[in-house]
Structures
1.
Amino acid sequence: MNALLELYNELAGSVKQHSQRVAACAVIMAKYAMADLQAEYDGLNAKELTEAVRAGCLYHDVGKFFFSPMVLISSTAAEEKNRIAMLRSHTKDGYEQIKKHGKACFGKDKQFMQVVADIVISHHEQYNGEGEPYGLSGEDIPSAAHICALASKLDSLFDTFVIKCGDKFEFVAKLIESQSKRCYSPKLIEWFVSAEKELAVFYLTQYENMRCLRA
Ligand SMILES: [Fe+2]
């Protein structure tokens, strides 16, 4: 039982820290995407949109907390299949929770909650239509969710290549840029390139903390 509790605490801790970094990076990119965001979410000003993007990114993986911690322990092929299926459903599970409890939780208006909901449901969609859960493509992916997707990938790649393998941030940035028209829209890559120096500075501040967690 202790092992299970430790696993669950580990998941909770890593999702929280990942989500905080994703939110910080998404807010940096949102500055460069503001004209498009405002066109998509009529009625929200730049400050409100920034706050909504931050909130959505902080909660983007909330669906991972609504399945039994037992799925974290998989020893048979069937259990592993079940674990993967439950993890894959986290966008829909999270969206249901945001729809049910979001307004009471955030106390914000409909447009603000639409940004949050879009991020939660669509942060695994890809530009080429090969993402999840609905296979949205191109301009059908809400910009706020698309920004979250890139920020989340950036965080995972930084962890893998910089923290574990000692590569430079620039290496990770080039990997992201190489995914233009595949995972990410050319427009999103433009916002990312514009924000790149600020993102590099942000990760410099996170480096020691992330390295200690990995040690
Ligand atoms: Fe996710």
2.
Amino acid sequence: MNLGSVEAVFFEYLQERGLRQTPERLCILRRVYAMNGPFTADTLLDDLRNSQNPLSRATVYNTLELLLECRLVAHHQFGRFGSYYEKSHGRRQADHLLCTNCGRIQEFCDPRLHAIMQDAGQALGQRIQHHQLHLHGVCHLFESTGQCPHFESSKADPSSSSQPMH
Ligand SMILES: [Zn+2]
């Protein structure tokens, strides 16, 4: 991942929109690209509040909207676990598997899905541009022990994105 090219995309977008390149916007962009896997706006906000230059909620939400518009960030709605964001520049699109008990989110990539979408698009006369696929399940351990391996860390805040990504 070349952060320079990400920043170039953002600056070009801001310029086209007549918006300023502020240090706050740049700080948020860099923090977003330091995140691993999907994260919530609140996680990002907390993360920034713990940094040397705390930023306002409005600035963080506003900048996330800009990053969505210029496609540097993707948005996922994970059912009751809420709204998640994820860096998207130069990344192969991943699909997500969500444990409905503990909220652990895992990514997977299967090239067979690409072929299925191409076939569906061709048959229905559309060029597929993007897709979202969320699989909902429960961790194997939940079925045998009644306890998810990540439940303790996630039950206080089901929207927390601090669960490990595999
Ligand atoms: Zn689980």
